Amino acid sequence: MNRTVIITGASKGIGADTAILFAEQGYNVVINYNTSRESALLLQRSLAESGHSVIALKANVANRLEFDLLVKETLYQFGHIDVLINNAGIAQQGLFTELSEYDWDKIMDVDLKGMFHTCQAVLPHMISRKSGTIINLSSVWGITGAACEVAYSAAKAGVIGLTKALAKEVGPSGITVNCIAPGVIDTNMNANVEIEDLNALVESTPVGRIGTTFEIAKTALFLASEGAEYITGQVISPNGGMVI
Predict the structure, then answer these.
(1) What predicted TM-score, i.e. pTM, was given to this entire model?
(2) Nearest 5°: phi and psi at 218?
(3) Is-contact 158 143, C-beta < 8 A?
(4) Comparing C-alpha atoms, which of 163, 118, 117 is closest to residue 139?
(5) Separation of alpha carbons 89 and 91, rounded Å
(6) pLDDT in tens, 69-113
(7) Which domains, and CATH codes, for the chain?
(8) Which phi and psi (to 5°) does residue 115 adopt?
(9) Is 152 a catalytic site residue?
C-alpha cells in the first residue's frame, strides 16, 4: 500500500521539488496550494502523466475549515495520511518600527497558526492509526533571528517550539515531529534579495554557495523514511555551515 503525503505550499519552490521527490518514491502526493492554482495544476498534470498518484487541492492553511476539507478529501481519495509536510509560508522584509499589525498578523496566521491548523487536522487520524510523521519547515532565521525580518523570525522560532513540544506529546502515539530550518535557499522568496546582500550571505557560508530546493526536499524524504523512525523533536538545519 502506497504511503500518502500532504505537502502544503507545494505549487512551487521547496514544496514542488518535495512533491516530485515523494511521488518518484511511490507516495500518493497531495499538492496543496492557495493562490498558485496554475502552477499546482501544471505540476499535478506533469506527475500524473509520468504515472504517479497525485492530486492538487486548494486550501489556505490560515483557514481551518478549508484545511479540514482538504484532509477529508485526502482520506476519501487515498484512505490514509502518513506524512504531513508543513511547507507553506510567507515572508516580508522591512524595519520592525514600520511593521503594521496587519502584516504581523498575516505572517503569524500563515507561518505559525497555519501549522496549528494543519497539525490538529491530521492528528486524530494519525493517533487512531498509531503512526504518522509531521515535518515542519522553519528557517535558520528562526534559530538566529534576522534584522528586518522580525515577524518572520518570530514565527519560525515559534515553529521550532511547536515542533519540540508536539513531539513530546504525540510520541507515545507512534508519531514523530521534526523540523527543517533551511539556510539561504534559491527560491522565489529570496528573489528580491539585493545581489550585494546575497553575495555577503554566500561569503559567510563555508560551502561557498546557497542551497537548492531539491536539497531541502531530500532532507524531508529522509525524515519521512524508516531510517528516521527514532528521530523526533529535532531541528535539522541544512545551511551550508552558515550557522553551526
Answers:
(1) 0.97
(2) -65, -35
(3) no
(4) 163
(5) 7
(6) 999 999 999 999 999 999 999 999 999 999 999 999 999 999 999
(7) 4-236 (3.40.50.720)
(8) -70, -30
(9) yes
